[in-house]
Specification:
mainly alpha, 12 helices, 0% strand, globular
Amino acid sequence: MMKKIGGEVLAKLKSIGNVEFLDDRSVNPVSIPFWELSFLPIGILLYRFRRFLFLSFAYGLLITVLAFATQLSYVCGLSEWNENPYFGCTSSPAVYVTFFLLRLLIVAVFLKTWYKTAVCGEALNVREMFIISARDWKLFGGILIIVGCFCLPLVSTYILAVRVPNPDWRIESLFFAVASSGFWLPFLALRFLSVFAFALGGQKRPPLKLFWQRTTGNTLKIIMALTLIIVLNTIIFLNYNLLAAFVIGRVFTVGAVVCDLVYNMLFLLMSASFASMAVVQREALFSWYAGERQNEGEAKDE
């Protein structure tokens, strides 16, 4: 039984990026198994894990160099070490925004290379690893949109907290309805998460309406699977912060550099885990189960 399940999982992992997507005219809802949404992203990360380690080290090292160059290294986030005689720490908002955007651009290039080589099994071309293409800019834009969606609840909370109540109940109700939309819009956006996977693979995406139709009945599964991934990443980072603080406290100079590199590798791991979930959602909606649903629909029509 376990061997059969393992064989099915391996077959699905090998089919990623190599299966033709079905006709966009099929609008039948697809039921995605919860265990696949939750655990197959981990399987994607473990599949060709050595390739992931190599790529995360290379791109993590690039982010580390950028972090120390902009004086925004990992130690600057530790209150007891943000003022030290070895590495400077800046408080300039302009530098922080620049570093934030450049790091996300590096993440976009990393995700494209990781998907092509580690997930789809293409040969690694070292010369192309650091060349920014049009697909990278699309991924960069997609990452900004995703980050913006996750920030909407914070924006809504801030707006509602600082608002001045209006005596007119109609204006107050309208304001509350608009401002509170940031709490529920991200949940709706999760149904379109697989759009990012199409950009990741450089494929033409189906109409947005089709994503909405095929994810019918899967919203709760997607939310629960995303919550699981967030919890796992949170546990990893919390434990790492404790370990890094201990190491830096014992061997500051070398420890600060090594801990910054490992932190960036974990950051890339987190980014890849979210991208893996998008890939699983895309494959389930348009490849693994969509064919079965389409055949069932055609059989009923006959």
